[in-house]
């Protein structure tokens, strides 16, 4: 083989080596980009799960507020003119949805607790905190016989709630 041919092969081999190196760098860069994108998708999974949970909760509340058997109980306060709300009860599905407005913030270490008052006593339906505007929405399931329901009352209780009402009544409504 002549020295000119060897030089020509060396030049071609060098060009091929440089092209292969450049291709390897490009593929490595694309691989890093794809890995970063996959990592970003993995961090979105918990957010997607929590959003799906919120959607399921909202759908459950909507289902609890619809139907021909739903009873709406108006809630009002004897002392605070702005405070009020509604308790929607679906006795078929045992869904209860509380919607309040105009509530003041409970004192430090306190929360609001919902009570379903029946002929048989007071049943706790859970606790809630209103937002800055005094509004809240809460959903619970409580099996109550239709004939024993008398009223719904919200009281201010120690944080975590109480076994029976101890605090002052905030809003209330009779059936």
Helix/strand/pairing category = alpha+beta
The largest sheet has its strands arranged as: 1-2-3-6
Return Rg in Å: 32 Å
Q: Kindly state the mean pLDDT as a whole number?
A: 87
- Say what oligomer this is: single chain
Give the H and E element order: HEEEEEEEE
The number of helical segments is 1
Total E-strand runs:
8
| Regions with little confidence, pLDDT below 50 for 5+ residues | none
Overall geometry: rod-shaped
User: What about the largest sheet?
Assistant: 4 strands, antiparallel
> How much helix, percentage-wise, in residues?
25-40%
Share of β-strand residues: 25-35%
Give the termini separation: 107 Å
What does this protein structure show overall?
- It is a single chain.
- This protein has 175 residues and is of the alpha+beta class.
- The chain has one helix and eight strands; from the N terminus they run αββββββββ.
- It has one helix at residues 3-65; strands at 71-76, 84-90, 95-101, 110-118, 121-128, 136-141, 149-158, 169-174.
